[in-house]
Design a protein that fits this description.
mainly alpha, 0% strand, transmembrane helix
C-alpha cells in the first residue's frame, strides 16, 4: 500500500546556503498542492475517473506561472535551472480515468523529484523491454516511458519501442503500440501516431484506442472526429469499467461527461508539446 502522507520540510531538507529560484519554489508548491489533491481523490474516490485532476493542475500551473513572471520581473538571472511544473504525460493521464491512472500520477510525481531516476530512465526502459524471464512488466514500462518524457528523451523511447515491436507477439505488441502512440503524441507526431495499428484493432476492447484518437484529432484541430471518438471512449469505459463511472448526482459527473472540459486539457497539453518542440529546435540551431 502506497504511503500517502504529506511530505514535510524534514523529509526533503534544502541544501545549506541554497537560495532556490522563485520558479522552483513555486514548482514545489504546485507539487505539494497537486499531491494533496491526488491523495484526497485516492482516499475519497478510489476508482473514479480523474479528468478533474488534470484541469485543477493545469489551472494551478497557469496561475503560478503568471505569479512567477511578476515576482521575477527585473530580477537578475541565476544559474539554477528552472524545471517545468507539469508535463505532457501528466496531462494525458489526467484525461484517462481509473484508479491505476491515479496511482501512476502519484508515483510519477515522486519520480519528478528524483533526479537519479530521471537520469537512468533510458537504461531502465531498455532493460524492461528485454526482461531476463521474457515477461514484460507493462506497468513499470509505462512509468519508465513517462520518466523519459519528463527528461525530454521521448525520441529514445520511440526508437526502442519500434525495435521491440518488430518481434513482439500480439498481446505484447498491442501494449507496446499504445506506449508508442503516447510517445509520438508527446513529440507532436500526430499523423504517425494515428497510423499505429493498436488504435484500430477491433479485436481488443481497450478504451485507450478511442481516447488517444480523440486526443490526436483534438490536437490536430479536427473537433468533430475528436468528439466522436471521445463518445466512443466514454461508452467503452462504461461497458468495461462500470464501477469507475460517477453517479449522476456526483460532482464529478459533469466533468467526466463534458467534452469541452476534455478539450481544455488537450489545449493545455498542446501548448506544452509546442513549447518543448520549439525549445528543441532552438537548441539545434
Amino acid at each position: 500500500m502506497a504511503d500517502f502522507r504529506e511530505p514535510t520540510r524534514r523529509d526533503r531538507p534544502a541544501p545549506a546556503g541554497s537560495n532556490p529560484h522563485p520558479l522552483n519554489r513555486l514548482a514545489g508548491t504546485v507539487q505539494l498542492a497537486g499531491g494533496s489533491f491526488l491523495r484526497l481523490l485516492a482516499r475519497s474516490y478510489p476508482a473514479v475517473p480523474i479528468l478533474l485532476t488534470g484541469i485543477c493542475l493545469a489551472v494551478a500551473y497557469r496561475t503560478l506561472r503568471r505569479t512567477a513572471r511578476k515576482s521575477c520581473r527585473g530580477a537578475a538571472a541565476v544559474s539554477e535551472p528552472v524545471r517545468p511544473v507539469l508535463h505532457r504525460s501528466m496531462s494525458l493521464m489526467g484525461l484517462h480515468g481509473g484508479h491505476v491512472a491515479l496511482q501512476k500520477m502519484i508515483h510519477l510525481q515522486e519520480a519528478w523529484l528524483d533526479e537519479a531516476a530521471l537520469e537512468t530512465a533510458s537504461e531502465e526502459f531498455r532493460r524492461l523491454l528485454s526482461p531476463a524471464d521474457g515477461r514484460m512488466n507493462f506497468s513499470n514500462l509505462q512509468s519508465a516511458a513517462m520518466k523519459l518524457e519528463m527528461s525530454g528523451k521521448e525520441e529514445e523511447a520511440v526508437e526502442m519501442l519500434k525495435k521491440a515491436l518488430k518481434n513482439a507477439p500480439v498481446p505484447e505488441a498491442h501494449e507496446l503500440g499504445m506506449l508508442l502512440v503516447e510517445m509520438l503524441i508527446y513529440m507532436g507526431n500526430y499523423e504517425e501516431a494515428l497510423k499505429c495499428a493498436c488504435l484500430h484493432d477491433e479485436q481488443i476492447a481497450d478504451s485507450r484506442g478511442p481516447l488517444y484518437k480523440a486526443i490526436i484529432y483534438a490536437l490536430d484541430g479536427d473537433v468533430r472526429s475528436s468528439e466522436a471518438n471521445y463518445k466512443d471512449f466514454q461508452q467503452l469505459q462504461v461497458r468495461l469499467h462500470w464501477s469507475d463511472t460517477p453517479q449522476e448526482d456526483s460532482p464529478l459527473y459533469d466533468v467526466v461527461h463534458d467534452f469541452e472540459k476534455f478539450r481544455i486539457i488537450v489545449k493545455n497539453m498542446k501548448a506544452e508539446i509546442d513549447q518543448v518542440r520549439e525549445r528543441k529546435i532552438a537548441k539545434k540551431r
